[in-house]
């Protein structure tokens, strides 16, 4: 039992517990805050996996921007507590059954087909320097240049779409 | 050192919890958060394999996934706000017509 495994197990317990807390809490604000904690644990996993740039962008983009947007909308709509409806009483048991099947199946297939020799070792300090970031940037801007440009167009389309959707319609405002 | 199977198992568990959220909750905001959780589980598997095979491609895919998730949230939340403005309610059960 080395220290790295202990860190992994504790963090994965936190990750699973916060995911379940997001799912089970009645108040949507609590769900959003649980999800922020989950994103932070995933960011620490990225650090353990030697991806410091991704860890930082996970925290700024996900835990920062996206979840703040969620909290804004929850509080704007007053959607913290929706009344539980019972139009589909069999929905919850069926959902639990199906997702347990999905999880067991995924774990079984991934483990049955894995090569057991693959291990993740903690990155040494040399990996968390500017060099790894420079290598990643070189890959991004040479091998993946076209997807990068397409992503910028996607973000522009999303921005225009959000503006068009939230603008008051001219005809409806009479 | 940690076997890569542990990371993949954790990723599968988180993905299943996200799928459970999409299937069982009625609040569209919680459904959105569950989708984010599933995207994160996939990202975790990407980074774990990128580390094992010592390539940057996996990390760059995660970068793109984060950008797509941001775009998706912006448009989706604008849609939810617009539905709320026309129906005064965002319960999933009452969204059964395309025309507001």
Provide a descriptive summary of the structure in words:
The longest helix of chain A is centred in the middle third of the chain and has 26 residues, at 52-77. In chain A, 72% of the residues lie in helices and 1% in strands. In chain A, helix 1 runs antiparallel to helix 2. Chain A has helices at 3-24, 28-48, 52-77, 91-112, 130-142, 145-166; one strand at 119-120. Chain A has 174 residues and is mainly α. Among the domains of chain A are: 1-80, Four Helix Bundle (Hemerythrin (Met), subunit A); 129-169. Chain B has 3 helices and 1 strand. The mean pLDDT of chain B is 87. Chain B has a single domain (4-93), classed as Helix Hairpins (Orthogonal Bundle). At the A-B interface, helix 1, helix 2, helix 3, helix 4 and strand 1 of A face strand 1, helix 1, helix 2 and helix 3 of B.
Secondary structure topology:
The complex is a heterodimer of chains A (174) and B (100).
Chain A: H1 3-24, H2 28-48, H3 52-77, H4 91-112, E1 119-120, H5 130-142, H6 145-166
Chain B: E1 2-3, H1 4-24, H2 28-52, H3 57-87
């Amino acid at each position: 039992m080395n220290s790295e495994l202990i860190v992994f197990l504790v963090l994965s317990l936190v990750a699973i517990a916060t995911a379940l807390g997001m799912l089970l809490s009645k108040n949507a604000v609590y769900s959003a805050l649980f999800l922020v904690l989950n994103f932070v644990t995933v960011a620490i996993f990225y650090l353990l996996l030697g991806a410091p740039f991704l860890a930082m962008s996970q925290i700024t983009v996900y835990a920062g921007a996206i979840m703040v947007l969620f909290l804004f909308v929850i509080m704007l709509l007053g959607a913290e507590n929706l009344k539980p409806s019972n139009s589909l009483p069999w929905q919850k048991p069926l959902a639990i059954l199906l997702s347990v099947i999905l999880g067991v199946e995924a774990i079984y297939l991934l483990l049955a087909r894995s090569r057991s020799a693959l291990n993740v070792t903690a990155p040494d300090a040399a990996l968390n320097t500017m060099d790894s970031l420079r290598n990643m940037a070189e890959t991004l801007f040479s091998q993946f240049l076209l997807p990068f440009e397409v992503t910028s167009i996607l973000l522009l389309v999303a921005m225009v779409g959000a503006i068009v959707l939230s603008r008051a319609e001219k005809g409806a405002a009479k | 050192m940690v076997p890569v199977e542990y990371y993949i198992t954790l990723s599968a568990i988180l993905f299943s919890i996200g799928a459970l959220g999409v299937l069982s909750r009625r609040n569209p905001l919680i459904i959105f958060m569950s989708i984010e959780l599933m995207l994160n589980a996939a990202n975790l598997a990407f980074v774990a394999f990128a580390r094992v095979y010592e390539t940057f491609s996996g990390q760059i895919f995660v970068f793109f996934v984060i950008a797509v998730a941001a775009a998706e949230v912006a448009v989706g939340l604008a849609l939810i706000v617009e539905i709320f403005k026309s129906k005064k309610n965002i319960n999933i059960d009452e969204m059964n017509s395309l025309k507001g």
